[in-house]
Amino acid sequence: MSSQLEQSITALEFALKTEQDGEAYYRQVAQRSQNPIVRATFVSLARDELYHAQTIERFAADLKASGQWAESELKARVSDQSGEVLTMFREALDGGEVQKGHSSDDSEAYAKAAEFERKGGAFFRQQAEAAQAESARAFWQFLVEEEDRHLTLIQTTLNYLDRTEDFHLIMERAILDGG
Asked: Which residues of the chain, if any, have pLDDT below 50?
């Protein structure tokens, strides 16, 4: 086995462990929080991390079996402002449900999640830059984009929780403006 192949497999194993740890942590936060927005956000993040772990496992198995990075169309399973998270906010607005806020544990969870996503994104970015095969670069870039979207999700939901009334005004305007 070549040194480059060994390095790729080691990087994939590290990425897999990271995603599995993220999924477990996000599920734990979702179960612990009393805030429905926090729960929904972290359930969504956990699902995404599971998808990433499964994707990494497939690529690692292919790489080990063939010695080459597989060509693949990667499909994002990402929760972002245009999807289910925006729906969560609109449902809270439509239902007249103004969140009471969030606990210090929730705040700590968001801070830890943001740091987790930043570190993951930096590692994946480093792997993308070092990749020699185009398919390897595309794989790592896919994960970079996923981590960036997660960071946006985390920041958006935290903004919602910190400034719920302001967020509702922004959402009302977006709904009235058609956006």
From this structure: 79-81, 98
Which two structure tokens, joined as six digits, stand for 13?
């194993």
Residue 162: what pLDDT?
77
Parse the chain into domains and list their residue ranges: 3-176
> Structurally, what CATH architecture does the domain formed by 3-176 represent?
Up-down Bundle (1.20)
Q: Please state the separation of Cα 58 from the chain's center in Å.
A: 19
- In DSSP notation, the chain reads --HHHHHHHHHHHHHHHHHHHHHHHHHHHHHH---HHHHHHHHHHHHHHHHHHHHHHHHHHHHHHHSSPPP---------TTTHHHHHHHHHHHTT-------HHHHHHHHHHHHHHHHHHHHHHHHHHH--SHHHHHHHHHHHHHHHHHHHHHHHHHHHHHSHHHHHHHHHHHHHTT-
Instruction: Report the 10 Å Cβ neighbour count for 164.
Output: 20
